[in-house]
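User: I'm preparing a small set of examples for a lab meeting where we compare how different chains pack in three dimensions. I only have the primary sequence for this one, and I'd like the structure in token form so I can line it up with the others. Please keep the answer compact; I'll paste it straight into my notes.
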Amino acid sequence: MEQDICASRHRNNYESQEAFQGTRSSREHQQEQIIECLLINPDGMTEEEISHTVGIRRHSCSARIAELKSLGAVIRKPLFPGSRVLEDSRR
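Assistant: Understood. Below is the structure token output for the 91-residue chain.
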């Protein structure tokens, strides 16, 4: 069973658990879109750029990125102090 990486934030609230289970297919689709986006942009992208390119809301994009980071599928790399760009971890 897939683990909700935000479970501790919402203290395993029943509604949050149900929402997590009910959005599985859309989460997986958004994760795939983010990976594809990063694969065609070898220099990496910011979260805002990914959100705009993929066409998903920023908070949803942030959640999918957090999930992908926990799976080791994407990493953050600093370009300059205070800056972070996401890239596919297979690079």
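A couple of notes for your slides: The beta strands are 74-77, 85-88. The radius of gyration is 14 Å.

User: Perfect, thanks.
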